[in-house]
Amino acid sequence: MKKSICIIGSGTAGLQLAYALKENFDVTVIERRSPDQIRQGRIMSTQVHFGPTRNREKRFGMPEWKEQKLIESIHVTIGDKKLFTGMLKEPALSIDQRLSYSHYIEDLTSKGVSFRFEKVIKENIEALIDNFDLVIDCTGKTGPLLPFPIEEDLSPFKTPLRKCIVGYFLGIKPNTPLGVNVTVLPELGEMFEIPAITERGPVTILFITAVPNNKLDVFKGIKKQEEFTLKMKSTVQKFFPEIYKRIKEDEFTLCDENSFLQIAFIPVIRRPYLFIKNKLVVGCGDSIFLNDPITGQGSNLASYCAEKLYETLIEYKDSEWDAQTGESYWNRTKQYVKEVTGWTNAMAMPLPEHVIHFLLQGAQDQVKADAVAEWFSNPAKAYQVFFPSKVKQ
Ligand SMILES: Cc1cc2nc3c(=O)[nH]c(=O)nc-3n(C[C@H](O)[C@H](O)[C@H](O)COP(=O)(O)OP(=O)(O)OC[C@H]3O[C@@H](n4cnc5c(N)ncnc54)[C@H](O)[C@@H]3O)c2cc1C
């Protein structure tokens, strides 16, 4: 008989795990929102999936998004100076999570994975632990449901690093080559302009990461669609003139009434396993590895860890899932988590001189520019540049 696995939460982590595990195990997913509620709900992220994540999605047979314009590059501007356009080795793609999550849930259901649409509360979790061979907590940043121990070295913050302000817009002429457009305004925050796909077609995401209580942090209290659009337009005009030039005044609007978001949270990294009633429980994705979105790594990290958890569970498929299994999963993910988190936390601080020097070289040297673009696909490369003394030769 196949071992039974309960995945709580069907976001990036839970869904990739469901695809990966469904052949070898008896998988049940519990998700608090139905596909329709997700589809009709608020946007949740900006979700750029870089090459390695897209390759993992292929590896696990996740449906592909054909005929979409792919993200080929990263444009970098500091202050009002455009430095360079770095080309990605493999293209990236951003699909509105409302579209991808609802589609994957329906596809998995059609392939025999069992879904239950209900909210798991802490009081019910012990019953799940009793009833399944393994429970995986994939509840995202509202989680975890269980007290996975905090890794203090990787969790130095007591307040959010940025206010995240996101809108999915129509009426912006895309940049060329099509890419993520990063503008760093020292001390104030950043703007990420991201081409994305929604159920209604292509959009441009404007994603401001504002240093709290500084000049970019100007969306406080805005709850209405029209007010959000007007504030975004005036903010772009004032701080991001190159993007403003590409806005078509009469077409500039949010793509739907739920396509804007304001959120701030404290990054925290936890050890991804623990024992409840002597039984192993694991976590995957934001519920255990929660970083600030400033480097766009959350979904990519969730996908990486889902693959490592899959590989661990396959290796230990025929033995008891115990401390060795949990430790093996943590050992497979630790280094990558450290690199993503170290780079992400450093990006939210004033950039060190040697990093600014590296970025400036990108303006003269296309090889360096392409190397910066590669940071987003392969965070170990970014970590090497930010922390040369910590990297073993
Ligand atoms: C503004 C913003 C921009 C971002 N941009 C990027 C980016 O460009 N690139 C990138 O890689 N990452 C980005 N991220 C991060 C990325 O969205 C997350 O890291 C990723 O979605 C994490 O996936 P997950 O499966 O862990 O959690 P989620 O996607 O949050 O999924 C968790 C799921 O669990 C369900 N759930 C929660 N609690 C319960 C419960 N008690 N019972 C049942 N179900 C439950 C939820 O309904 C949800 O469906 C961004 C995040 C934000 C906030």
From TrEMBL:
<dbReference type="GO" id="GO:0004497">
    <property type="term" value="F:monooxygenase activity"/>
</dbReference>
<dbReference type="InterPro" id="IPR036188">
    <property type="entry name" value="FAD/NAD-bd_sf"/>
</dbReference>
<feature type="domain" description="Styrene monooxygenase StyA putative substrate binding">
    <location>
        <begin position="140"/>
        <end position="246"/>
    </location>
</feature>
<dbReference type="InterPro" id="IPR041654">
    <property type="entry name" value="StyA_sbd"/>
</dbReference>
<keyword id="KW-0503">Monooxygenase</keyword>
<dbReference type="Pfam" id="PF13450">
    <property type="entry name" value="NAD_binding_8"/>
</dbReference>
<protein>
    <submittedName>
        <fullName>Styrene monooxygenase/indole monooxygenase family protein</fullName>
    </submittedName>
</protein>
<dbReference type="Pfam" id="PF17885">
    <property type="entry name" value="Smoa_sbd"/>
</dbReference>
<keyword id="KW-0560">Oxidoreductase</keyword>
